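Key result, reporting period 2: structure in, sequence out.
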């Protein structure tokens, strides 16, 4: 059997965020394409224990190592030690660098602690330049903001093929339901989302919005919802896992109201592919990478971050969402599954990366 190491520098067992969903899906995908995966993850003690077991592997005959750091700086005393050991065994290492928020937002330089954090992020990058064979990024646009001698390859999130048949093309409802799953904030477009659905439904009910978020997020943003809490078009849920899947079954299309800026332009939200997993066409703002996915693959409708444009996008989606369902299924089945991402990592780390065509 093929063997590999997967090193996730944090505990992703509770799946409480998109950043934890991704490593779980990648782990499962590597196993599906035939790998015996030696997983290292968890807190410092758990990583130390896994590392001790790894050192007892006499042959260390692993094909490659795939690393997913968290959005926080590495723990040098354990994380660096593990990666250096793997590097010294001449095992190819691919590192997925998923977040660069610190590089774009000035609020990370307003205190001594944040200055220290920024230094540690930069030191991590220097370490990755020495250790990695390949650097993976969520998108080419994000990769362009970093300099590496190693090849840089896009590795966006993906969808689950097995869920798609639940969404049937002929089941168009009289009152379509949109779903939003995720965080609440100005950056995530919460105000734009609520104002747009209020505008669309001002005269009569044309589309419902099912908003799924964490309870604590809602409590922190109650001021945003005070005007809308009793609206007949809005339903708020705090669910996950199987219960979230049941909510997806009620939806006709997904919405991503992410506000356009230099950082969000290269963002590839996990929810994009989660929506696709449930066969949902997507309405999004015109953040660069999001727009490219949706327009080029005919997966839905793109508006911009203005109230007028996003409201018009909702109206168009109400009329046309059924027309996109076939495109969603084709895209996921041909290009967008987690197994495709795992095969991409395997292909590029086992072959000459400079000859790899980046799809």
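The corresponding designed sequence is given below.
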């Amino acid at each position: 059997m093929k063997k590999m190491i997967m090193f996730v520098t944090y505990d992703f067992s509770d799946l409480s965020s998109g950043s934890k969903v991704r490593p779980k899906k990648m782990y499962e995908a590597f196993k599906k394409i035939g790998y015996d995966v030696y997983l290292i993850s968890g807190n410092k003690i758990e990583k130390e224990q896994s590392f001790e077991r790894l050192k007892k592997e006499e042959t260390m005959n692993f094909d490659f190592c795939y690393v997913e750091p968290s959005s926080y700086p590495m723990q040098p005393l354990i994380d660096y030690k593990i990666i250096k050991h793997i590097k010294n065994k001449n095992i190819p290492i691919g590192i997925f660098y998923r977040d660069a928020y610190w590089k774009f937002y000035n609020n990370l330089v307003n205190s001594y602690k944040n200055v220290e954090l920024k230094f540690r992020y930069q030191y991590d990058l220097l370490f990755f330049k020495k250790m990695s064979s390949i650097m993976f990024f969520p998108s080419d646009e994000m990769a362009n903001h970093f300099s590496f001698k190693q090849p840089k390859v896009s590795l966006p999130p993906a969808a689950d093929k097995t869920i798609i048949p639940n969404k049937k093309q002929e089941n168009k409802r009289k009152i379509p339901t949109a779903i939003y799953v995720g965080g609440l904030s100005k950056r995530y477009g919460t105000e734009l989302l609520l104002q747009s659905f209020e505008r669309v439904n001002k005269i009569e009910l044309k589309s419902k919005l099912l908003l799924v978020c964490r309870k604590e997020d809602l409590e922190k943003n109650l001021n945003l919802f005070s005007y809308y809490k009793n609206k007949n078009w809005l339903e708020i849920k705090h669910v996950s896992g199987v219960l979230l899947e049941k909510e997806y079954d009620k939806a006709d299309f997904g919405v991503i109201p992410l506000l356009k800026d230099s950082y969000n332009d290269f963002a590839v939200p996990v929810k994009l592919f989660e929506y696709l997993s449930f066969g949902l066409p997507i309405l999004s703002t015109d953040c660069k990478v999001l727009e490219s996915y949706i327009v080029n693959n005919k997966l839905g409708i793109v508006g911009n971050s203005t109230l007028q444009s996003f409201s018009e996008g909702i109206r168009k989606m109400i009329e046309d969402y059924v027309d996109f369902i076939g495109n969603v299924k084709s895209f996921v089945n041909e290009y967008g599954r987690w197994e495709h991402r795992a095969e991409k990592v395997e292909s590029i780390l086992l072959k000459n990366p400079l000859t790899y065509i980046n799809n």
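The chain has two domains: 2-158+337-355, 161-334. Confidence is low (pLDDT under 50) at residues 353-359. This case is discussed further under Risks and Mitigation.
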